[in-house]
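Handoff note, outgoing to incoming analyst
You'll be picking up this chain. Sequence as last confirmed:
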Amino acid sequence: MNSSASFHLFGWRPSRGVARRPHSRLARSALGIVLAPLLLGGCAAHSVQPAAGSIAGSITVFAASSLKGAFATIGAQFEAAHPGVKVIFNFGPSSGLATQITQGAPVDVFAAASTKTMDSVIADGEVKAASTFAANSMEIATPAHPTRSVTSLADLAGAAIKVAICQQDVPCGAAALTLFSQNRIRVTPVTQELDVKAVLTKVQLGEVDAGIVYVTDVKAAKGAVIGIQIPAADNVTTTYPIAPITNSTNGSTAQAFVDYVLSDAGQNVLRAAGFLSP
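Most recent structure output, in case you need it:
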């Protein structure tokens, strides 16, 4: 992709030269005092801030793993529309990203794979309000060359079938458990992965017979796995909220990125990736 947009996977850690976001809570203020000596040898990530109201500089976007492909495209388009702007992505499990945000990670925008996860960040005061920009539903993924036959949701209850899902505190894991419960099938996963991309990898490698992933993940795999659709009446849907972080050091650009995701241009990218309208 010919773009300066950059991204890395889940795993933010405070490092030399990178300042945490300002936060009003006393505990985090105290933590900032402890970290201050570590920052003297370098410049903070947002030390040169753009003029108020201008769309300039860089922003860091924390986004659910399932958004990786679509947001990489949206980020490139946003940068092209605003020359000089840089969008840095951190993709990972929504619950883990939310924890990083509440611990003071330097971030400007958060896009989660569930309303529940976003609500936890709102409750902590990191976000004032969020906008729903997409929805997704679940699909069964099996290896491109399966060794055991899986053709329906009911097959996942078979004793010989190895099933992978996300961890239950991650939106894709919670959705999988709801899917099993509402369809009254008992499935014992052999592994619960950190995020949906990890589940998909297990399927691609043939380490499991099936995995519960999002429809968009099967589409993004481009034939590397076989997708087995779940009837709409039996399926579950998750919604995706997005919001600028209240204490972003580049609020104007953060809001502009959120607006772009909600715009026709951003929505067209999401629809092409297989996401549903919110």
